[in-house]
Every structure is written in structure tokens, then in C-alpha cells.
Amino acid sequence: MQNRISSFPPLIDEQSEILILGSIPGVKSLEMQQYYAHPQNKFWKIILELLQEEFTEDYTKRTETLKKHHVALWDVIDSCERKGSLDSEIKNEEANQIEKLVEEHPNIKAIFCNGGKSYKNLQKLLGKNYKLPVFQMPSTSPLHTISFERKFEEWKKVLEFLSGRV
């Protein structure tokens, strides 16, 4: 049976300069009510290392670190039906209002999609010639089996858009 699930509110403020978009939270994230809560997902390890911040399990500290470095988080999908956590199981999806969010936060300089599903969905939503640069990043999910080092190297593109503060 498919369960109807919904994304979290965006983690964003007026200082946010980059927006990282996932597809929609997985089972563990929904259970914990935290972005990227699955312990094998490398999002927090990658982003905290990129920002040269100490790794922490404390979700409040993690989100404060993102805000400190002007990084926003959200999902491309607002709600959908899905059994389990696989993007390939997503059905009957409804999109989040990404364009409206970016208009309301004019400091956003670039959008980074965490994986192929969020990138493909965003392309459908915004079109190919959107006003901001949009990058497809390797998924931080454990199912995307390239090495941590290779994922980390690709994710370094985020630093180029953080105004040289890092």
C-alpha cells in the first residue's frame, strides 16, 4: 500500500544564498522529522565538511550551521504517495512552490539538486533556461554508490556560490 507523505517546511531565511533541494523525505527522516535523518545518508557529513564545521549529530546545531553559512534546504516535491523511501516508488506527486520561494528570497544565487529525481522534477517545474544556475549533484543517499570522496568533490561546487566566505 502507498502512503501519502508530505515534505517539511523550507529551512531558509533572508540571508540564504544557495538552495539545496532533495526530492522528498524518506521514512527515517519522516519518523525523526529531520532532513536527511538516515544515518547512512552522507548529506550532513558532506555539507559540514564542506563548510569546515565539526560534525555533529545534533539536528538543531546542524540547521543553525546551514543558516550561518547561508544555505537553505527544501524538497522539490510537496506531497506524494510512496511505499518505503525509494524515489522510484514515488507516485501522484505534487510540486512545492520553488519559484515562489526563490522570488521571496532574492539572495539565492544558485540551486543544487541532491540527486537525479529532484533535478528532473525541478527541470519540469522551471524549464531549462531558468534565471538561476541549477546543478544536479550526486545523491547523498547510500543507494547512490559512488564513493564518498567522489561525492564530496562534486559537492564542492556549492562553495563557489557562498561569496568566498568559506
How far apart, in Å, are the first and last alpha carbons?
45 Å
- How can the largest sheet be summarized? 4 strands, parallel
Mean pLDDT equals 92
Helix content: 25-40%
Morphology call: globular
**How many helix segments?**
7
Strand content: 15-25%
Topology, element by element:
Blueprint: E1 3-6, E2 18-22, H1 27-32, H2 43-50, H3 59-68, E3 71-75, E4 77-82, E5 91-95, H4 98-104, E6 110-114, H5 116-126, E7 134-137, H6 148-155, H7 157-160
Parallel strand pairs: 2-3, 2-6, 6-7
Antiparallel strand pairs: 1-4, 4-5
Name the features.
166 residues, alpha/beta, 4-stranded parallel beta sheet, globular, 7 strands
Structure commentary:
The protein has helices spanning 27-32, 43-50, 59-68, 98-104, 116-126, 148-155, 157-160, and strands at 3-6, 18-22, 71-75, 77-82, 91-95, 110-114, 134-137. It is α/β, with parallel strands linked by helices and 166 residues long. β4 (77-82) and β5 (91-95) form a beta hairpin. The longest helix has 11 residues, at 116-126. The protein is globular and about 40 Å long.
Short description:
The chain is an alpha/beta fold. Helix content is 33%, strand content 20%.
